[in-house]
Specification:
Elements (H helix, E strand, L loop, with lengths): L2 E5 L10 H17 L2 E8 L3 H7 L5 E6 L8 H13 L4 E5 L2 H14 L2 E11 L3 E7 L4 E5 L6 E5 L14 E4 L31 E5 L6 H14 L2 E4 L1 H5 L20 E5 L5 H7 L4 E6 L6 H4 L2 E4 L2 H16 L1
Parallel strand pairs: 1-2, 1-4, 2-3, 3-9, 4-8, 5-8, 10-11, 10-12, 12-13, 13-14
Antiparallel strand pairs: 5-6, 6-7
Helix pairs in contact: 3-4, 5-9
Length: 322
Amino acid sequence: MGVLLVIGEVMADGSLARISTEVATLARSLAEASGGEARGLVVAADPAAPAAELARYLPTVEAVAAPELRDHVAPQRVAAEGVRLAEGADHVLLGASPDGRDVAGILSALLGRGLLANATAVSWDAGPVVEMSVFGGRLDTWSGFTGGAGIITVRPNVVTAEPAATAGKVTNGVAAPAPGIPSVRVIERVAEAGGAAPIEEARIIVAGGRGVGGADGVRVVEELAAALGGAIGASRAAVDAGWIPYSQQIGQTGKIVKPELYLALGISGAIQHKVGMRTSGAIVAVNRDTDAPIAEFADLFVAGDLFEVGAALLTRLRARSG
């Protein structure tokens, strides 16, 4: 038995990050398995809305107002509150986002606790058993904490967020002084243009790889994504070539996605890409190379030219919508 603390992440628009709902769902299941208790923490300039959202997944959530976060980077301030609450918790769980990794690192240093990063699954056996994918996805490892307490960061899209049957309670906490952590002021915010939903949240993704060959191939990817109502993705090769922006990269050095349909055009399916999309509901690949690694794990592999297959698919999709 023990307490599992979930530190919620708040987006720039003041909403709760989706990864925090996934981590909260995981923490609740671990608490049920261990006979323990799952709690939440939200620190934000205006924490009311994100704390209420996190309370849909956890029995209790403490909301701490930190007005300075309107013009300061969050991790340092969030970590200060995390230290206070973590002293009464056995384990701390966060999303493996850029902010989550920063908070986890600060907590590990200040609390002297071990950190298991980028968990792909967590189960309970007299303590959390953390599964991690290492060496570019070539091996899976299972680890625990020898000290009886620790910090875990969880990769996006490895847990399906499920609200609890009954919403929890939100309490207002009192801000604690930062334990010697320097604050970082935000000088400028730059928003990427475009109205498409983030690929991490897309139900359908059409992704292009080295095989798209250039602008003409990218146009096929874009047209199929539009016809299917999906988002555009890319392998590292397509991003390095400058055909598709880095924000759309999927894989070990990009985004982790879990769409219902993943349509891969001209993507070989190297292990570095596979680790970013292997949990997709259905994987459909189009590639001329029948020996491409993606042929081994795709649900449907089409051996053919992506331009011909793409054109035929677009014709059928447009006929259906017409």
